[in-house]
Amino acid sequence: MTALPDKLTGFNRVEFEDTCRRRFFFGLAFDPYGGTAGLYDLGPPMCAMKANMLSFWRQHFVLEENMCEVDTTCLTPEEVFIASGHVTRFNDVMVRDTVSGECIRADKYIEEFCETKLKDPKITPEDIDTFKKLHNAAGSFNKDELAAVIAKYSLKSPKGNALSEPFPFNLMFSSKIGPEGHKTGYLRPELAQGIILNFKRLMDSGNAQRMPFAGACIGNAFRNEIAPRAALIRVREFTLAEIEHFVNPSQKAHAKFDRIKDVQFHAWTRALQSANKEPEVMTIGDAVANKLVDNETLGYFIARTQLFLAACGAKYVRFRQHHLNEMAHYAQDCWDAELLTSYGWVECVGIADRSAYDLTCHSKGSGKELSAREEFAEPVMVRTLQRTINKAAAGKAFGKNNAAVVAHINNLSEEECVALGEQLQSGEVEITLPTGTVKLSSAIVQFTFKDEKVSGRNYIPSVIEPSFGIGRVLYSILEQSYWIRRDDTGKNDKRAVYSLSPLMAPQKVAILPLMVKPELEPLMISLRDELVVLGISNRTDDSGAAIGKKYARVDELGVPFCITLDFAGDGCVTLRERDSAKQVRVPREAVCGVVQALCRTVNPRDWASVEAEFPAQGSSE
Amino acid sequence: MTALPDKLTGFNRVEFEDTCRRRFFFGLAFDPYGGTAGLYDLGPPMCAMKANMLSFWRQHFVLEENMCEVDTTCLTPEEVFIASGHVTRFNDVMVRDTVSGECIRADKYIEEFCETKLKDPKITPEDIDTFKKLHNAAGSFNKDELAAVIAKYSLKSPKGNALSEPFPFNLMFSSKIGPEGHKTGYLRPELAQGIILNFKRLMDSGNAQRMPFAGACIGNAFRNEIAPRAALIRVREFTLAEIEHFVNPSQKAHAKFDRIKDVQFHAWTRALQSANKEPEVMTIGDAVANKLVDNETLGYFIARTQLFLAACGAKYVRFRQHHLNEMAHYAQDCWDAELLTSYGWVECVGIADRSAYDLTCHSKGSGKELSAREEFAEPVMVRTLQRTINKAAAGKAFGKNNAAVVAHINNLSEEECVALGEQLQSGEVEITLPTGTVKLSSAIVQFTFKDEKVSGRNYIPSVIEPSFGIGRVLYSILEQSYWIRRDDTGKNDKRAVYSLSPLMAPQKVAILPLMVKPELEPLMISLRDELVVLGISNRTDDSGAAIGKKYARVDELGVPFCITLDFAGDGCVTLRERDSAKQVRVPREAVCGVVQALCRTVNPRDWASVEAEFPAQGSSE
Predict the structure, then answer these.
(1) I need a labelling partner for A27 at 20 to 30 A (CA). Which of A283, A287, A503, B169 fits?
(2) Min CA distance, A424 vs chain B (Å)?
(3) Which Pfam families match (chains A, B) (predicted)?
């Protein structure tokens, strides 16, 4: 594998953003009204890239893995996010400028404060150490720790005013569902709950009750970010593609692990991070064998994600393992696929083993048992506690308290039953209930153990979740594919090129008449019609611009191939490859087929074989 | 064209819904919590159908017409919907049960009241007429008309309580954007604004300023329906696919009209509706020539929509023209594509000429000129009004009122300027401004006309909008494709079949081993791997069920083809077609290619040619 650089070399963000704006890859939404922070529109090139990526995601994951894809709603009733814990815990901590009322995200504000300190040329070595540590730790601080830092350094607001005490701010957008206005709903901040709540229906309807299986979903999520920034990286509305793989917690081996065990990846384990070392290249097979990755299923999805990102054209990818104190309390193991951008390494895909947390929450929250059934290979003997209550005697003894007594006994743990049973051996036991005090006796209540042959068990599945931030992946690939073509003369040195893979390119091919002549129009139209029938996206440029200018225009849209039409009269057209600018002469009748092969999703033809088959035409540069 | 039936014959909604539930085509969202009215999840079969439809929509419209697709946000700041009129006008009228507080949509409640009356066997002929008319008119009543009906018939709530006065209820979901909580946003109830606000960027960036061109967008929209009902037909969150075609209002001919002029459609014109007549079959060429459809561009999109729906497998489609009093005040002409369902004819696609309304609203709302430029073939002489203000004299005469005077004069219409100019000929004119009263004289203000040669003009484009309700189209096609297969014995007569086109089918092919034998597994896996590489969605069923049962299982998922694996040892497999249940023997090496050809998006191979090429195997029934 190629080594990972520290940063994108030669990347000029001003020029990059200028190209993105000029060709409308993306831009602030509601532009005529001055835009809205954190809301972005994708223009035609990036919208097409997104459709290409999602289509490939469906092939790579849903089709290849036989997943059950669902389409779930953004609007979500409150009870779902109460059960999942989002209503109480999906917060960032913010502080308020006590004069202007402006709100600031506390951890990011402290990070910026550290960055400013670290830029001071007169900083002492001790302070470098202090502020680097503070910078790295701020994101995991709680409210009180943040308050302590603000007090210690007497931080003021950007306007120089006093700051409020830090307080939690819930990132979910809320609204009211229904005309009466008393039912609160939230816009989902992730897709997980929508898939997980369909667990039973998916298992029953499509899957003939077989475990393991995976649900998948593509859709939008919403977070009311306090400080949206960094172009498409931290926004308030974004597209996710998520998988929830349901698996027996005691059987996390993966049937297809052998197919991917030799896939290499840049692994940045906890240990390497703590030792301040760089990521190491290893195979996923070794990572699982050496217990660096918790289990085969998690490893399988790391490998499949690596393959997906590589096919999309991501060049610089590393997988960072979460620290133990960084993971949610229920998570078993978690790895982020990070892509290198000019903003640093950006978390684009999270791959987490969430254990049985979600299904347990929603079983409790909804009162429905969200479990799967495991049949044992051989029946096993199981000892179970029997709670026997003499109904007639109990009714007589407890009267109106009877129901409360029964509930109390059924709610006791196994240990508590054993203890109570022992007490009852020595006489009556008094217990206090909300409805009054009663006396239990062994004539009324007995606890016994029974041995039974059991053929299977119900269990709550673990969930392994790969979650793709589609906008982040797209943006990172766009940055990584960007470069400037310099010609021999040293002039025209601002010709931007996006070296997007044919899979991702917004259009696969441009049809470019060498000059504006009506005689060339039928050929252009017939080529276009043929490509449309083949489903190959394309664009034409029949303007009066010079051919070099036309190439430059499509290079900066990432179009990988051009077909140039001329008057040679040999029944051929010129086919040009974007990155090398090399050209070959191809018969008109063959050219659409060649382009189709070059742009196939799986096993595309490579350009070298095209150069080998057809005569060269000299570079277009 | 086939004639249109009055209703879907032989359709049994209970059985249909049972199949949809059992195979999880769709279901109420948040099922374990009892569901939320108006919010539905699509399960795997319908989710795949939706992806297929949207992918074909992109090919049929975006690619074939070279449209500029954008991806815009659901969250929208308030100012956008103030300018577009949605904040004041996007309402339904509702009434409240004065005791229980329940809210009821007034027009639908009156419709239901009429339906109940019309079911009364003792109803008089006069009342039949009265309640039929009231039923058809209720939807267009305003608040006061609805109040009058409620009073006239002393309508009570479903619980028998008094109803409140009717009042408007805005259907947009609102939320707060940003941490400060003082910026109101709405979830968009349609996609139009997001596309239209990108008009300038699209024209400048992708389109080299050429008109006409179209923007397109696929995404979710949200309406807080008072009374969600009828499965996927009236829901609170739904997917739209919209096109906004920007065109010079004086040039609505369409360059490709000739390609589609012979397309036939069921046209239900205003005149036919008013005369209580059925839709008539005509060609779109005739409809435009006879001025039944307002212009070629609108007609072009009607024809393209007809072709799209037919390719998706819609059997019963009619185009209903809006009445003049039914259209928005700014609309020039509007046609709805309606599909027949068990709920009656359902509006699935709206195709409207919205004139220059939207861009005009947003030019005013944002203060940005959202116009296009037209260069004339020949320069023309244009007489323009000049408003000359003597600045020095004005400053002296008006002092602090000066700015207000200048604004006043610039805001006068041409007619007002002419009139004022005439008055000024006869002496000073006193005008009253918010800032005070001033006297104008001809020494300070003059109006003159100037003749100028002009090479072009700026104009605000008209917008022609085809808007597809994706969930409604999907649901209608699902109903129209549903039937029950009856076998010779009269038993098993509840075998549901969805005759979905290969284009729409959730999976194209099922791979079915004839029996459970490990020897058949390698063949099954190799077929599956080959299909995955070709991007052909498929499913396998290696359960122990009988082959007839396996066919039934995939028939009720709409899978058009089955490959059955057996032990014949002739290197062949059996290929079965769903609707006819006919079977042929095809060599293993050829079968994936045959399936690929049968399922091509454009010009698919037909089954008859497969039957002609390969030996028959007898029907699977």
Answers:
(1) A503
(2) 41
(3) HGTP_anticodon
Q: Contact at 8 Å (CB) between B257 and B296?
A: yes
Between CA A351 and CA A296 the distance in angstroms is 13
- Indicate the residue of A32, A206, A219 with minimum beta-carbon distance to B24: A206
pLDDT of the residue at A210: 84
Q: B495-498 and B429-433 as β-strands: parallel, antiparallel, unpaired?
A: unpaired
In a domain, A365, yes or no: no
Spatial neighbors of A225 by CB under 8 A, at least 6 apart, are: A38, A92, A105, A171, A234, A235, A236
pLDDT digits (tens, 9 = 90+) for B407-431: 888 888 888 898 999 899 888 888 8
Token couple for B281:
């079959």
**Which residues span the domain enclosing A298?**
13-88+172-358+462-471
Percent of chain A clearing pLDDT 90 (strictly above): 72
Residues on chain B touching A47 (C-beta within 8 angstroms):
69-71
What's the pLDDT at B209?
A: 67
Domain count, chain A: 4
Of residues B180 and B540, more confidently modeled: B540
| B48 interaction partners in chain A (CB closer than 8 Å) | 69
Q: Which of A63, A94, A179 sits opposite B103 (nearest CB)?
A: A179
pLDDT in tens, B216-263: 999 999 999 988 887 899 999 999 999 999 999 999 999 999 999 999
Specify the 3-state DSSP secondary structure of B381. Answer: strand
Residue of B nearest to A67 (CA): B44
Q: Give B70's contacts in chain A (Cβ within 8 Å).
A: 41-44, 47
- Beta strands of B162-277 (E only): which ranges? 167-170, 174-176, 184-187, 213-222, 237-247, 264-268
pTM confidence score: 0.90
ω into A212 cis (within 30 of 0): yes
Is B82 within a domain?
Answer: no
Residue A394, pLDDT score: 87
- Same domain? For A593 and A529 the reply is yes
Which of B44, B45, B222 shows the shortest C-beta gap to A75?
Answer: B222
> Are B355 and B330 contacting, i.e. CB atoms less than 8 angstroms apart?
yes
Looking at chain A, which residue has its C-alpha nearest residue B543? A208
Q: Is A25 helix (H, G, I), strand (E, B) or coil?
A: coil
Domain assignment present for residue B81? The answer is: no
- Percent of chain B past pLDDT 70, that is, above it, reads 98
Of B106, B135, B170, which residue constitutes the final position of a domain?
B170
Query: Which pLDDT score is estimated for A434?
Result: 79
For residue A555, which amino acid is it? D
Min CA distance, A401 vs chain B (Å)? 31
Closest Cβ–Cβ partner in B70, B174, B237 for A41: B70
Interface residue of A205, A460, A534 to substitute, partner B, most B CBs within 10 Å: A205
CATH label of the domain that carries residue B150? 3.30.40.230
**pLDDT tens-digit series, residues B20-49:** 999 999 999 999 999 999 999 999 999 999
Alpha carbons B280 and B264: distance in angstroms, whole number: 10
Do A75 and B173 count as a contact with CB atoms less than 8 A apart? yes
What residue of B is the nearest CA neighbor of A197?
B30
Contact B63 A543 (CB under 8 A): no
A345, A276: one domain: yes
At a CB cut-off of 8 Å and minimum separation 6, what does A141 contact?
A93, A106, A107, A110, A149
Task: Tell me, yes or no, whether A467 lies in a domain.
Answer: yes
For residue A48, give the chain B residue with the closest CA: B69
CA dist A92 and A86 (Å) reads 12
Contact yes or no for A535 and B63 at CB 8 A = yes
Using CA atoms, how far apart are residues A530 and A524, in angstroms rounded to an integer?
10
Angle between helices A44-57 and A470-480 (to 10 degrees): 120
- Euclidean distance between the first and the last CA atom of chain A, given in angstroms as a whole number: 31
